[in-house]
Specification:
alpha/beta; D-Maltodextrin-Binding Protein, domain 2; ten-stranded mixed beta sheet; 12 helices; about 45% helix; disordered N terminus
Length: about 350
């Protein structure tokens, strides 16, 4: 339809033009606001190329230990930040080597693994040959947490502290048994380290995971063990296990009445487990960035902090380069312990 001519038609035309200009201006303003909000997001949140499906988070140990507690708490928060499900899969075997080998060879770019003091810092010295290279086959993402090692005895054992335990064992060399989650596990290292500094002899009984070991310790079939606080603090609080010392430099707020090993006569002693996220060497850098940012966010969440605090887990954090340096330092530290204690696989 043709527009009418004359003054009235000019008013109509100007009105239409003003309306179109206003609409265009609002559209441009909305687009600018959207662009600003996108730029304000972290880089990992803007990049939607990863993940494209659910992420498999492998734990190289049996259920029931500190590793699972840390992995599940982290996975829950990563699911929120990544926008895809992050699910935990326990895959025990051969001191963690089975899972490490599988993830090292994974090419789906949606599989990650929980790195650990044993698989990264001990196995390289304990095994003559490893089916993976801890430094070349993986990309470090973030150090998640440290778990204090607790030194435990069954309540039937007539000792109240570490000094009494050492005296008791020295009078009965080779007559007592301690359990661990397996050769090269954190509990194995912690007890061998203690044996080394206290010059005691107690027989090692390896299990396939913390869960089976705890079953026998609680039943009294084992006399002692060293276990990460997260997995056993509930049993200490209820009196089903007795904690005779902590491996931390200072006493734990959760167990203020339990002295450290250092306090009881062995200064400088420290033993903590640690856990972090690794991806296979072919994991895209975008994925590493997303996981590192998501991990940092997870450790800041109140739900994670409350869970960690209740289980005496110490959240750490840090990026890929920091984690890589930490692994290198731990490898140097534990080589000396493995060599001196002559720790070998089953």
């Amino acid at each position: 339809m043709a527009l009418p001519c004359g003054p009235f038609s000019l008013v109509i035309f100007n009105g239409i033009r003003s309306s179109m200009t206003l609409t265009r201006r609002r559209t441009l303003q909305a687009a600018a606001a959207a662009a600003t909000s996108v730029l304000a997001l972290p880089t990992w949140a803007q990049n939607r190329s990863w993940p494209q499906k659910a992420v498999r988070f492998v734990v190289p140990f049996a259920p029931g230990g500190s590793s699972e507690i840390i992995a599940r708490a982290t996975a829950m928060e990563l699911t929120k930040s990544l926008g895809q499900s992050v699910y935990v899969e326990n895959k025990p075997g051969a001191a963690g080597n089975v899972a490490m080998q599988e993830v090292a060879r994974s090419d789906d770019q949606h599989t990650i693994i929980l790195g650990h003091i044993g698989t990264l810092a001990v196995n390289p010295w304990m095994f003559d040959r490893l089916p993976y290279d801890p430094n070349k086959d993986f990309k470090p993402v973030s150090l998640l947490a440290k778990v204090p090692s607790l030194y435990l005895v069954h309540p039937d054992l007539p000792v109240k502290n570490l000094r009494e335990f050492v005296d008791y064992v020295k009078k009965r060399p080779g007559q007592l048994n301690y359990g661990s989650a397996g050769n090269g596990s954190a509990g194995h290292l912690a007890m061998e380290y203690l044996k080394m500094v206290t010059e005691t002899f107690i027989v090692h009984v390896p299990y396939r995971g913390t869960g089976p070991q705890l079953t026998d310790l609680l039943a009294g079939r084992l006399q002692a063990a060293s276990v990460g606080a997260a997995a056993v603090i509930q049993f200490v609080r209820t009196g089903r296990l007795r904690c005779i010392a902590t491996g931390t430099p200072q006493r734990l707020p959760q167990l203020p009445d339990v002295p450290t090993v250092a306090e009881q006569g062995w200064p400088g002693f420290e033993m903590t487990q640690w856990y972090g996220i690794l991806g296979p060497a072919n994991l895209p850098n975008a994925a590493v960035d997303a996981l590192a940012a998501g991990s940092a966010s997870a450790l800041k969440q109140s739900a994670t902090q409350e869970k960690f605090s209740s289980d005496a887990v110490i959240g750490v954090g840090g990026g890929p380069s920091e984690f890589a340096r930490f692994i290198e330092q731990e490898q140097k530290r534990w080589k000396a312990v493995v060599d001196r204690a002559k720790i070998k696989p089953d």
